[in-house]
Amino acid sequence: MIGFSLALSDDQRQLQSWVHDFAANVVRPVAAEWDDREEFPWPVVQEAARIGLYSLDFVANASFDPTGLTLPVVTEELFWGDAGIGLAILGSGLAAAAIAGAGTPEQLGEWLPQCYGTADDPRLGAFCVSEADAGSDVSSLRTRATFDEATGDWVLTGTKAWITNGGIADVHVVVATVDPALGARGQAAFVVPPGTPGLSMGQKYRKSGIRASHTAEVVLDDVRVPERCLLGGRERLEEKLGRARDAARTGERQPAMATFEATRPAVAAQALGIARAAFEYARDYALERRTFGKAIAEHQAVAFLLADMATEIDAARLLVWRAAWQANNGGLRGGEGSMSKLKAGRVAVWATERAMQVLGGAGFVKDHPVERWHRDAKVYDIFEGTEQIQQLVIARAITGLRVE
Ligand SMILES: Cc1cc2nc3c(=O)[nH]c(=O)nc-3n(C[C@H](O)[C@H](O)[C@H](O)COP(=O)(O)OP(=O)(O)OC[C@H]3O[C@@H](n4cnc5c(N)ncnc54)[C@H](O)[C@@H]3O)c2cc1C
Question: Structural domain of residue 237, as residue ranges?
C-alpha cells in the first residue's frame, strides 16, 4: 500500500505535460470543428495512436499506477483540451475495463489488444449495457443470451441504447440476461468479435454536447458468439448464478450499484478537465475585459466568482484523487468513488455556466468555447450513473439502509 500524497512524481509530471501539449496543440484547435460536424474525429485519434496516447499500453500503465493518480491526472489534461474528442480517445477504455474486470487471462490476451488496434491502424471498443428501458435500472435489461446446445454458441438478441462507439467499434462487450428471474445477478458479459453477423448500428444520437464522441444504438439480431466469448467462462457464470439463486431463496442481500465505484474517479476527472478549462478561460477574459474604467476582474462580484470557481474545482479534485488512490490501495469503503463523480459533475456544470456569465454576451455565442464546454459538462450529471444514482450509493453507504 502506498501512502496518500498530493506530490506527483517526476514521471507523472512529465506525462501530465505531454498530454497537456497534445490537448493544447492537437485537440483544442479542432474542437469546435468536430463539435459542429458531430462526427468521430478519426484524424485526431489516429494522431493519438501514432504517438502512443491511444494505446493499450498507455491506458494499462496509467490505470495500474500504484498511487492511483496517473489516470485522473492525464484524463483531466486531455479533457481540458476537449471532452468530445477526449471521449473519442478514452471511450474504448470502457470495453477494456469490462474485459479486464471479468475476463480470464486468455480472454484479456485475446481481446484487449483488439480494443485498440495498432499505432498505424487504431481500432475501437464499445461497452454495451444500457437499453431504452434500462439505464439507471440495469436490473431490467431485456437483451437475452441463450445457449444453443446444438452448436455450442451463445445467441444474443436485443437492442442497446446510448452506446459510446456503438456500431463503429471493432470489439463490442455486451451485457445480457441469462436468467431474468435473478435481475442484475442473472446477467453476463460477452465479447462480440469484429465482423460478427447480426450486430448493427441503430440510430446515431444527435447530442447537445460531447458531439465528437459517437453515441448510437446497437442492434443484436440473433448474434452468435462462441463459448470462449463469455467473459470469465462458463464455470464462473454457473457459480455466480448458483450464489444468486441461494441468496434469492434465503432473502440475503448482495451488494449492488457499487460495481463502478473504482472507475468513477476517472470519469470525474473528465468533468474536472472541462471545469478547469472554463475557469481559466473566464479568469483570462476577466483580466482583459474592461467596464466602468477597470478590468472586470477588479469588480469584486466577478473576482469572488472566480475565487469560488477555483475553490470548488480544487475541492472536486481532492475528492477525485482520494478516491483514485483508495481504488488502487485497499479499496473504497463508503461511496467515495460516487462522491468524486457527484461533486465533479456538479462543479463542471456550475463552473461552465458561471464562465458564460463572466463572458456576458460573448459567453452565449460560438466565438468562444465556453458555451460548448457548458453543453459538454451536462453529461457528467447523467452518464456513468446519474447524479441521483451517485446520491443513492452514498446514502446507502453512510446509513447502511436500503434507501430506494
Ligand atoms: C452521451 C452518452 C453516452 C453513453 N455511453 C454509454 C455507454 O457507452 N454504454 C452504456 O451502457 N451506456 C451509456 N450511456 C447510458 C447512460 O449510462 C444512461 O443514460 C444513464 O445511466 C441514465 O439512464 P437513463 O438515460 O435511462 O435515465 P433514467 O434511468 O431513465 O433516469 C431518468 C431520471 O430518473 C432518475 N432516477 C432513476 N432511478 C432513480 C432512483 N432509483 N432514485 C432517484 N432517481 C432516479 C435519474 O437520476 C434521472 O434523473 C450513455 C449515455 C449518454 C447520454
Answer: 125-250
